[in-house]
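re the bet — no i am not wrong, look at it urself. input seq straight from the record:
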Amino acid sequence: MNEFKHFINGEYVASASGKTFDNRCPVDNSLIGRVHEAGRDEVDAAVRAARAALKGPWGKLTQAQRTALLHKVANRINERFDEFLEAECRDTGKPYSIASHIDIPRGAANFTAFAETLANHPTEGFRLDTPDGKGALNVGHRTPKGVIAVIAPWNLPLLLMTWKVGPALACGNTVVVKPSEETPATTTLLGEVMNECGVPPGVFNVVHGFGPDSAGEFLTTHPLVDAITFTGETRTGEAIMKAAAVGLRNISLECGGKNPGIVFADCDLEKAVEGTMRSAFVNCGQVCLGTERVYVERPIFDAFLARMKEEVAKLKLGRPQDPQANFGPLVSQEHRDKVLSYYRLAVEEGATVEIGGGIPDMGPELNGGAWVEPTIWTGLSDDARVIREEIFGPCCHIRPFDSEEEVIALANDTDYGLAAAIWTENSSRAVRVAEQMEAGIVWVNSWFLRDLRTAFGGAKQSGIGREGGVHGLEFYTELKNICIKL
C-alpha cells in the first residue's frame, strides 16, 4: 500500500494534522494507499517555498538553462515510463493501451513543446516620434507571473497537469499543484523526477486534499498566489473565480462542456462513426471535449445509429493490463453514482435506450469496481436535463435534423461552449458551420486532434482565457513596456 505525501520545497512531507483519506482503484475498489490531506500550514509552506524559489536559483537561470532542465524532466518521465503508466492506470482504471499512447507520452511532451515554443517567441517593439525630434524606443519585456496555483483534474491526471506546469515553468514561474483527490499518484511521482533532474527545491510543489475547507480553498485564497489555472467543472470554476477576485489575481479556467457533434448526410459515414465513437466513449466518456449530443441529418440517421450500436457492442471492457481492453471503469464509485443517476433520468424523461443503460456484469473479482455500460439514447426532447447537463460518462444522445440552420441552432442551444465536431465532405459547409459554432475549438472530420501551438479554451460557461502555444504567454507572464528616450 502506498502513502501519498505532499511534495514541498523538494521534500516529501506528511500532514501535521495526521489527516489522510483513501485512494481506491476504480477497477475493483481495492485500496491503493493513503493520501495526506493538506491543511493551511502545508499549503502556506508550499506557497512560500515557491515564492522563495522565484528569488533563488530558479530565478537566476537563463531561458536556455530552464529549457534544458525541462527537457531532462521530459526524458526522465519517459525513462520511468512504466512506473508512470502503472500509477496512472491504477488511479484511473483506464486501459494501458490508451494511457501508453496518450497520457504518459503527451504528459512528458508538454515540457519540451512549451519550453521550445515559449522560449523563442518575440515581443513587440515600436519607435515613437517625440517633439525634440530624437524619438524614443518602446520595447516589450516579459517577466514571470510568479507563483502559479495549478488545480488539475482526474480524467487525464498527468497530461492535463503538465499541460499547465510545462508552460508555467518554461516562463520562469514556480508552481503549487493540487491534483484531484481521486488521482494523486503521477503528480506525486513527478516530484521525484524534479529532484532527479536538478530542478531547484520550491519550483514544483504538490499539496493533496479536497476543495472547500481543504487544500483547494486554502491554495486559491492564499494571498501570495499570483495566478490560478484550473480544469474542472463549472461550479468549481465559479468558486475559484470568486477567490481570485480578492487581490485581483489572474485566472485561466477550462470548465465543463456539453459538446455537439454534427453529422451531415454528405459525410464519410465510416469516418464519422469512428470519430464519434472516440469522442463519446474514449476514456469511458470522461473527457471535457467529449461529445454527448450527436445531431445526424435525417437521410443517414438510421444508418448512422445502426453503425454506432454495432461499434458500441464491440467495446471490450476489462482490466487495464488486458491488451484487448479498450474501455475501463469510471474514476470512482461517487462518479458512477452520478452517471447512473443520469442513466435513470434519461428513461424517466422518455429516452429510448438503444444500447447499454446499466451496470455490466464483470464477474466477482471486478463487480465492486466503478463499471457502467456504454450507452446510446434517442428520443429525448431538446429541453430534457440529459440534453442540457454535462454527464461526463460513456453516453450520448443521437437526434435527427433536417437543415443546416436547424442544427446550428440546436448545437448552440447550451450554456456551454467548449468544443464541437462537424462531419461533412463539403468544404464550404464545413467552414460556414464552424464559423457559427459558439465554441472554443471546432473540429472538422476529426476529433481531439491537438496542435499545442494553437489556442485552447472555452466560451460561455466552459471557461475563461486561452492557453496553448504563445497564448499561454498572456497568462503565464507579465508584459511590461520599457520606454527609452533617445
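see?? The chain has two domains: 2-255+462-485, 259-451. told u. also The mean pLDDT is 97. so pay up
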